[in-house]
């Protein structure tokens, strides 16, 4: 997935790449697990990854509701959004009958609900919901005002929660326990802090906590959820030159205040990274979208799917640093015994509590055994003698 800059390729060609496949442990679609035609609802369909996910699903003959943002698009644009640039590579399928273009603002629950109502009315069902929508501000935490921070939470966290809460009952009540599938696009920023993206990272951390907790709640209903964490992704579709997206995508750059304005200021790390990468991000959006399509069809999806070498290496390094930090400081939470062994403090406390509550009798018996050996009298007899003497 991370290779030198390749010629643009269509989703159809990528889908035929036998090497680009999820692990067999998740039972990906293939000869042993023939894919069924699924109905997708893709929020943020006109964004960076959303476009590629929609086109990958259409290339595999799935049915797709592509949801654009109300403040960027119009209904007429969304109705034919997939046609001008994607048609050459999808000529084998009548995609007019496989595509439904809608608009919504994920921050507004009513508009999200309308998307689900219209999708069910149009297709008769929904199988996979992918949330590719997102918004971020690049700038120091101190520089971002309340409106900008709240807007990131409203879009990234509350938008995700709106989508889930308005669709869970539908998935839960589907006949024959068919359930459903959530593919929630998070980010490596949901696993590690990035200077210049503090509030954005906070929203992604919140999304990760939400999905990981919810996973246990919805499993009995055959509803699955996966957090997709892409690294630096480039658009490499055939129409990426004629139909470009802004370099900063869904991010707004906040002008730095004087304390954070230096060319090497840590708070400007995210901005420098995006400017340095430009359109040369190492991870292919087309290949990533193919794996996301497989994720929608596999039998045993993972909780997290990291896409690209940057995502894997950065998250793995972050986890290593956490483990190292835990090891360095664990002696503050553990008790070292006389023999040099280490026991958890809570284990020691539990043992002490057990001895205080129930262990007195055990200790009395053990003491009684010793006294019995010395006096020849059982412990209970000794106690009776002591009581008589005291009275």
The low-pLDDT segments are 84-93, 362-366, 368-373
Please tell me how large the radius of gyration is: 29 Å
Number of helices: 13
End-to-end Cα distance, whole Å, is 87 Å
Q: Going across the major beta sheet, what is the strand order?
A: 3-2-1-4-6-7-11
What kind of sheet is the major sheet? 7 strands, parallel
Q: Could you tell me the strand content as a percent range?
A: 5-15%
Structural class: alpha/beta
| SSE sequence, one letter per element | HEHEHHEHEEHHEHEEEHEHEHEEHH
Task: Write down how many β-strands occur, each being a DSSP E stretch of 2 or more residues.
Answer: 13
Provide the residue-averaged pLDDT.
83
Basic shape: globular
Helical amount among residues, as a percent range? Answer: 40-55%
């Amino acid at each position: 997935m991370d290779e030198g800059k390749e010629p643009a390729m269509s989703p159809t060609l990528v889908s035929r790449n036998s090497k680009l496949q999820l692990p067999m442990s998740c039972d990906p679609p293939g000869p042993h697990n023939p894919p069924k035609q699924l109905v997708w609802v893709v929020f943020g369909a006109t964004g960076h990854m959303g476009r590629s996910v929609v086109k990958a699903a259409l290339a595999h003959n799935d049915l797709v509701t592509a949801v654009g943002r109300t403040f960027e698009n119009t209904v007429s644009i969304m109705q034919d959004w997939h046609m001008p640039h994607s048609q050459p590579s999808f000529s084998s399928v009548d995609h007019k009958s496989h595509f439904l273009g809608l608009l919504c603002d994920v921050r507004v629950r009513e508009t999200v609900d309308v998307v689900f109502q219209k999708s069910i009315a149009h297709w008769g069902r929904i199988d996979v919901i992918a949330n590719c929508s997102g918004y971020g501000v690049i700038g120091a935490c101190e520089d971002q005002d309340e409106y900008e921070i709240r807007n990131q939470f409203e879009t990234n966290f509350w938008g995700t929660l709106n989508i889930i809460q308005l669709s869970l009952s539908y998935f839960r009540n589907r006949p024959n326990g068919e359930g459903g599938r959530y593919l929630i696009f998070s980010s490596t920023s949901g696993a590690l802090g990035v200077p210049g993206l503090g509030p954005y990272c906070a929203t992604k951390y919140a999304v990760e906590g939400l999905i990981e907790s919810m996973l246990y709640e919805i499993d009995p209903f055959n509803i699955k959820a996966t957090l997709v964490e892409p690294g630096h992704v480039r658009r490499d579709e055939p129409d990426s030159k004629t139909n470009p997206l802004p370099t900063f995508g869904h991010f707004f750059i906040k002008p730095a205040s004087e304390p954070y304005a230096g060319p090497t200021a840590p708070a400007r790390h995210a901005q420098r990274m995006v400017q340095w990468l430009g359109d040369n991000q190492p991870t292919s959006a087309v290949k990533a979208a193919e794996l996301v399509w497989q994720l929608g069809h596999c039998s045993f999806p993972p909780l997290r799917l990291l896409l690209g070498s940057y995502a894997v290496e950065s998250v793995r390094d972050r986890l290593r640093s956490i483990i190292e930090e835990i090891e360095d400081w664990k002696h503050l939470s553990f008790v070292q015994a006389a023999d040099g062994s280490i026991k958890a403090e809570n284990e020691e406390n539990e043992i002490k509590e057990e001895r205080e509550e129930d262990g007195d009798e055990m200790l009395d018996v053990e003491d009684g055994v010793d006294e019995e050996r010395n006096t020849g009298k059982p412990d209970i007899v000794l106690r009776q003698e002591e009581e008589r003497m005291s009275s």
